[in-house]
Amino acid sequence: MKFPQLRQDFAASLVVFLVALPLCVGVAVASGVPAELGLVTGIVGGLVTGLLPGSSLQVSGPAAGLTVLVFEAVQEYGLPVLGVIVLATGLIQVAMGALKLGRYFRAISVAVVEGMLAGIGLVLIAGQLYSVAGAQAPASGLGKLAGLPGLIADSAGSTEALASFGLGAGTIAVLVLWKHLPKKVRTVPGALAAVALATLVTLAFSLPVATVEVKGLLDSIQLPGFETVGELASLGVLGTVVAFVLIASAESLFSAAAVDRLHDGPRTEYDKELMAQGAGNTVCGLLGALPMTAVIVRSAANVQAGARTKASRVMHGVWLLLFAALLPAVLAYIPLPALAGILVHAGWKLIPLRGIVSLWREHRGEALILIVTAVSIVAISMFEGVLIGLALAVAKTAWEASHLKLEVIDKGAGPVQAYLSGNATFLRLPKILDNLEALPQDRPVELDLSGLHHLDHACRTALENWAERHSATGTEPVKVTTP
To answer: Which H or E element spans position 116?
Structure first.
């Protein structure tokens, strides 16, 4: 056989297609854009990013992790500007990959990334619960959470809301229970089975629930015009681009590291993978589609289904294209509460509950960064929340890096001996001076700095000035042993 791995890749591509289809549609609807644009991003993830080098078994497409940010961008700037934002994101990712900056994304604090995903998960769950009940969600994260009691009260007295809620809850139940079913049954992806069952129930009982609005693949594509490119001069749009770049790149490269642990094949080349993601987002931006990231759910399904080469992810893009071209009318039968249920389940999986507990036991500072990042995203916004998390991570690292110990030995007679060890930086300068100035003024002092790993200019200057002041009182000059 000329291509011995083709059979395995073909079978894997069908599994990935069936996993990707409901997620592409669900993410698009939750993002406030036509359902077809989610399929476009999935197609580009297969046919463009799938062909490029980087990570051979990782699968890309629209991700639940960007849903909240995309929804906010569409609401604030409009759908045409989304294409420009995604285009700029892709070009920046390509440039970063070409400059070999991909590896540095691995240095981003894991607590910040997990806090970011947890915050996204909370906002996603809160927002999609309104869709489960067939209601309109408030704009802000806090508004979504605060409005949940009222949503429950209003839904209890509405037949339509109860039908919608029952359908969404049933979808979530299928997803949760699916992994406990026999292995033969689980050959069908849980998300596809849940949507298919919800669609059949809706049709069989003529339930009064909203379904996906179908516009057609070509009608949904909007090429960005010259007037929308000018929106990049806006500070808000530029901030959104930065957030897209940071989140999409970090999520893709963290996903690549996770996928590498699932198989024994070639390892990910991070800079090439970042360029591949950038190329995909550039094409998505030109087509006015959703932004793309590598998606761990699809990637894991690809590996577990026995994929051997990148052919599986390319073929999954072909199947998405054929579906979008030949069977778009099928989308109109899918009930929105079922898609909302899938995203509630996806949002829940973004929250690392077990990780937070173990992190709190072992590294409380990291756990606090995770929690503060998540809460900031819910309370303020995605971009500001991530910036707050990064600032806290940098501050924590700087504080730990400036660890300093002062040991004073005073035998009652002779010189007072002071030993400094660790890292003497400006962050600890007030503490250093307070301790040194508390030494007896009428006694000679021997200051030993040989135990310091680092002595910055501010500390060196301050220590020299203190030594001069101490010696000026008439005592012997301070003897300093330098590092």
So the answer is: helix 110-132
